[in-house]
Amino acid sequence: MIVLNWGLTPYQHGWEFQHSFVKGRRQGQINEDALVLLEHPPVITLGRKGERANILADDAVLAAKGCEVCQVDRGGDVTFHGPGQLVGYPLLDLRHYGQDVHAYVEKLEEVVIRTLRDHGIEAVRDKEYTGVWVGKEKICAIGIGMKSWLSYHGFALNIDADLSYFQLITPCGITGRGVTSMAKILGKAPQMQTVRETVTTHFMAVFGIEHWEMAEGRWLGETVKPSWLKGHVSGNSSVKEMHGMLDEFSLTTVCSGAHCPNIGECYASRTATFMILGSQCTRRCRFCAVPKGVVQPVDQDEPQRVAQMVKKLGLNYVVITSVTRDDLADGGAAHFSQTIKRIRELSPELVIEVLIPDFQGEESALDIIIAAQPEVINHNVETIPALYSRVRPQADYQRSLDVLQYVKKNAPQIVTKSGIMVGLGESPAQVAATLADLRSVGCDSLTVGQYLAPSPEHIPVAEYIVPEQFQSYQQLAKQLGFFHTACGPLVRSSYHAAEGFSPKISLSS
């Protein structure tokens, strides 16, 4: 048995995978069973006996809710799948488990009943209807398909699904009954990963499977740059004007230095992330376009020029970052502090975010940054720990976590922020573990974006992550407790940064 843990996956892709898997088994090309566990974007599915009249909303309402409709070859009537619902597709050869369809359905119900019991919910079967119930409300729908005793389709357990979608249908064609979720019953949603692990354990026990392999099955995305990776177009005059101002003040932005795809949009809105301490970095990270080489002497007048340009732009929010300067005793912390001080003098109401290097873990350098009292301190972990030796060979994952933890411990009023890139070859489970690590050290705000290789000399893109997978990361971050998260193909660490600060203002007022 192989268990494939997927993230948020388009329904059509899930169906095509099942169809191909069953076909492969019938032709003798595949000899193992599989259990696919995933979530779907909003979709209403009609089974073989489903009646279109049980979809209560018209096409306009469904379109407004972003919900598609699919006719499928499973048993049952109409149901809904969406984020926050754990869907399981057991792809089994029932000749190995007893050729009894009714017994198979009862086993699936038993898996869910045991899972819910472990989470403090007493659920039962119903004499009239399939599925798993809590009182008169269904918490898990079951609808299966079968070809030559090879099973497909399966169950859908509501963990933290948006139950309002069920008002668009007559769920399972049953009137006078309701739909519920674990979150509704418990008052809070258990983590999807925890429920998924519990389901897997009970599935193996109920079906008597002693050996199974966990695999990072997933919606893989594209290997050719897809259509959704297009930056927002803005007039060349905005970019030209911003470059003119940067030349006037002899300043650099990370927008240009890092080849950011959003440079046109940000420059058009007169925002930028200023990069201080020169344009040459002392580290050789293999993902970054910032030049590496002989560093320049620290420009003592730079903080004042940054403040003057910020004032001229009339900004409400500014991000200050730097190249990594391991050659300096304090890593450049004092220069950050001076820049913050000069900005405060000219623009006292401005919200300041600093995107800092790790300062090699020196707490004295972090103390300097904290003492300058920026509203936000951002330090990116950049990727999962398993890829550090390849992506950030001169950095250390635990050290980066320690930086964020130190800031939060010693200045809890400061918003802590971090970000990662995806598409470097990481798995969804590894991303989930990294997000959990960040929350465990008190990180408040998160960005997740697609890695784009700046040149052929940099690490190549392993895959282009589909928007649906970013939605899955967005929901996971919400469940973990980040107060603000931005996940998307073109999201970058400082992209629309001011939007991430506004929730904190209301939270602390």
Any overview of this molecule?
- By secondary structure, the protein is α/β, with parallel strands linked by helices.
- The chain is 35% helix and 19% strand.
- The chain has 16 helices and 19 strands.
- The protein has helices at 11-26, 59-64, 101-118, 182-186, 192-206, 236-249, 254-257, 263-268, 302-313, 333-346, 363-371, 388-391, 397-410, 428-440, 467-480, 497-508, and strands at 2-8, 34-39, 43-46, 68-71, 78-81, 85-91, 132-134, 137-147, 150-158, 178-179, 213-215, 252-253, 273-276, 317-322, 351-355, 376-378, 415-422, 445-450, 484-488.
- The strands form 3 sheets. Strands 1, 2, 6, 7, 8, 9, 10 and 11 form an 8-stranded mixed sheet that branches. Strands 12-13-14-15-16-17-18-19 form an 8-stranded mixed sheet, sandwiched between helices. A 3-stranded mixed sheet has the order 4-3-5, with no helix packed on it.
- It is elongated, with a radius of gyration of 26 Å.
Write the layout of secondary structure elements.
Layout (H helix, E strand, L loop, with lengths): L1 E7 L2 H16 L7 E6 L3 E4 L12 H6 L3 E4 L6 E4 L3 E7 L9 H18 L13 E3 L2 E11 L2 E9 L19 E2 L2 H5 L5 H15 L6 E3 L20 H14 L2 E2 H4 L5 H6 L4 E4 L25 H12 L3 E6 L10 H14 L4 E5 L7 H9 L4 E3 L9 H4 L5 H14 L4 E8 L5 H13 L4 E6 L16 H14 L3 E5 L8 H12 L1
Parallel strand pairs: 1-2, 1-11, 3-4, 8-10, 13-14, 14-15, 15-16, 16-17, 17-18, 18-19
Antiparallel strand pairs: 2-6, 3-5, 6-9, 7-8, 8-9, 12-13
Helix pairs in contact: 3-5, 9-10, 10-11, 11-13, 14-15
Cofactor: [4Fe-4S] cluster
Family: Belongs to the radical SAM superfamily. Lipoyl synthase family. Belongs to the LipB family.
Function: Catalyzes the transfer of endogenously produced octanoic acid from octanoyl-acyl-carrier-protein onto the lipoyl domains of lipoate-dependent enzymes. Lipoyl-ACP can also act as a substrate although octanoyl-ACP is likely to be the physiological substrate.
